[in-house]
Amino acid sequence: MKKKRASFLTHIFAIFWVLFFLLPVLYVVFSAFKSRSELFQHIPTFFPRDWTLDNFKRLIDNPYFMTYEWIRNSFIVAIASTVVAVVINTMSGYALAKFRFKGDTIILIVILSTIMLPLEVIMVPIARIIRTLGLYNTLWALIIPPAATPAGIFLMRQFLLTIPDDLIESARIDGASEWRIFRSIIVPNAKPAIATIAIFSFMWRWNDYVWPLIAIRSPSRYTLQLGISTLSGEYTTDWAALLAISTISMIPMLVVFLIFQRNFVQGVAETGMKG
Amino acid sequence: MKKFFVLLIAMVTFFTVAACTTDDDEKVLEMMWFSDGNEADVMASILQKYYRETGVVIMLNPIGWNVYETRLGTMIDGDDQPALIRTTEGVMNNFQDHMVELDGVFDEEGFNNIFRNAAGNPLGLPMDVTANGLYVNFDLLDKYDVNYPTRGDDDIWDWDEFITEMSKLKGQDDVSYPGVFDFQGHRFMPLMYQQGITMWDEPLESMNLKSQEAQDALQILMDLYADEIISKEVFSTGAQELMMSGRYGFHMSGNWFVSFYEDNADFNWGVVPMPTGPEGQRATVLGGKSLSAVKGSGMEEEAKAFIEWFSQPEIHDEFNQFVPFLSARVGADIDFGDLDPVLGMFQDEISATPTTLTADWVYMTQVPGIYPMINDMTNAAAYPNGKSALDILTELEQKILDELDD
Amino acid sequence: MAKKEQSFKSYIFRQKAVPYVFLSPNMLIFGLFIITPAIMGVYFSFTNFRGLGDQPQWIGMQNYVNLFTDPDLFGAILNTIYLVAVTLPIVFFFSLLLAIILVQPLRGRPIIRATYYWPVMISFLVVGLIWRWILRDSMGYFNGLLDTLGIGRIETLLNPRFAWWSVVFVFTWSRAGYYMVMFMAALLSIPSQLYEAAEIDGANRWQRFLHVTYPSLRPARLMIFILAGMEIFKIYPLVESFTRGGPNYATEFAVRYIYETAFSYRQIGLASAMSVVMIAIVMIFTLGNLALAKRRGAI
User: Fold this and answer.
1) ipTM
2) Which domains does chain B have, with CATH numbers?
3) Which of A105, A116, A247 to mutate to probe the C interface, most C CBs <10 Å?
4) What is the pTM of this model?
């Protein structure tokens, strides 16, 4: 097929939606640079009249906004949980894609049905378990439990179904151990899916709200999202701080996204939706 | 690439282990806290002082109000209680079985507004008292010739006069609404008392909510909403934020916003007397925050010791002076400097309220889950959906009596 | 010989054990942190547990009896079902539209795709804040814009209907990019011969969409339908930071109502019973969809 460009009108249409998705976020980011009095304008302007860093300074100056710790914790949790997620989801995906065994369908159904469960409604029992295991108020509680993502397992299973069985069989005949097969055949072949899971997992954990709410009590262990959620008094909402901290919370997502978005879309294209 | 990942994993492991284990096991007391303004800073400096005097470390743990009770519940369920906690009547009420009884810890004669459990034991040291009051934007009121009484006037306005005056602001270009009421039901209760009626006929037994006076009171609020004298936006945005835009004439609230307006308002603001009922009755609801100790922290004695220390006049006054709050201490005479007239106005509202009415409110706070219930009532006043004042009050009375039955 | 048989047996055993071993870390986590709490939740639903270190007391079906006479719960569940019914088709067709735009040969396609996808990366908490900040009645940008343009301000988040539709809108804004990517993948995997054949048959654009594109998307459609449906059923952090369930409970949905029951009123037992009912409804929705799809031969 010869390549031809889409029409001018299609471009206009496409750009309309670009603005639709972009402008609201930009408005909030710009608001974070407005002075306190400008935040209470009857008719707000899109750009700040006087750019100021006051709102960000407040985050640093006020000892009760442990912004640095919150950012650090968010990074630790997101990265560590992603590493765990990649390993265990790949293992499970492999088992479900390439083995027939007793209970395989049931296990798949159980895994998928956990997607349905809103964690908010079982917070109290989860908190009890976390405490019994001694994970309460540690970052481990934010790293380990959420790493077992049903979506990740499912994604990996679907992807691995496309790897020919012969590859595995011939390795087995050659006497390779199961772990070796996993490491030297499955993992290299699953790279696109691994990338997808990694990026998704990083995003999910960075944006997690419920797990930290259940498991963390000390402000020095908060993640950014939990910090954001606690920025309100009995009567007041601290918009100045909220806007600034929300802006900060979006930056790492933007970076990750700009670096990986190609892999990401390719990953999904080659993974979930083929069969 | 592989090296990079190994390095990454090693780094993460290191940080994780570091972050997950560095918990100083040193025995310190924890004080759970929430703030509407600068209270945490003031408290922190007082805790410093306590440390210098006694060597006991108390760590302040500020938590957002919207997860405050959830968190306290989780802590209690996990036997992981903070030793000390800042409480409202609502918190003490909901968690009263888990609060240390403080009889004998401080001089009960020396403080107003003590919250007690059914056995009559105090559950918290009252730190400040809160009173309702009417903030106004003088610039806007003067611009449109709205007449208002000021502090010390003998003849203050009643609700009819108030509405007539404030209606002058309606429809002006630089006015969004004449004013705002905090959405909390607590802010409606003064209207009821101004009608000269108590809510309890027989405390914790039978109620007056279906009386004509109560209906009149709720009708005032319903009309304020229906006639667009006050904005419904308070149900999604803080009333004080709306007031900050400079486009509202008044804000019916309480003294806890003094420091907020002091820090943020760029218009001339002040507090004027609240309107009275038909018989000229003035009234406010008395509230306040307390300092409580939590059972099961293993530090109950240390917590009591701190509360005892904090109840000393000079310490107690220092806290209220620097926030600034109205003190709950009997006979406290704090110099608020420039803010003296403003806080004095709130003090006047308290003095003008008969003790029978303040006592009546105390019984109200002992009903489990009372705050959500009265909030539902003001919500219904703003969005009546065809219900009359009597319907709404009947519902409320039923809910309260049902709760007491359990 | 015996030894060989022995080792063969152990080989078979090992082979059988392999998948379980590979699955074990995941299943251990699921078992501990999701399934056990869920079972505990079901147990709590038959008790008067308050979650304050108290021992749950068995009260039989009392919670279930109570919740069937709770008009507010009924209202919140119904409200959630309406939300799913309205939002699902909107999200569905909007993300399909975006995907179709993106498979066109556009200039700067990667950047366009990136911006469409970008809101997905923002947490629900922050998404709610963003839109509360824009849509709030008096000082929001939206009303300011209407004012400047001379259209005049309208009631936004203090109007129950506007607020409810705003939840639909904001959810769509934040999630369309996610489903768009799934649709894109499906669109790109449609063999081009199908289109060529249709073109030869003289089918116009619309006919090609209707007869080639749309039917080929069937598996993707089903998956998106189920995933998005469950996501809307579970909506919570978004409304919590966007409207807090208001105004006048217009945006009070099931999970938020349950959460309030559990933590504002500390009725964990009752809230657990509500959760059981809610999850049953989600399951009916999901299984119903699957069954329907099966009958039509989609899977």
Assistant:
1) 0.88
2) 23-130+288-334 (3.40.190.10), 132-283+350-405 (3.40.190.10)
3) A116
4) 0.88
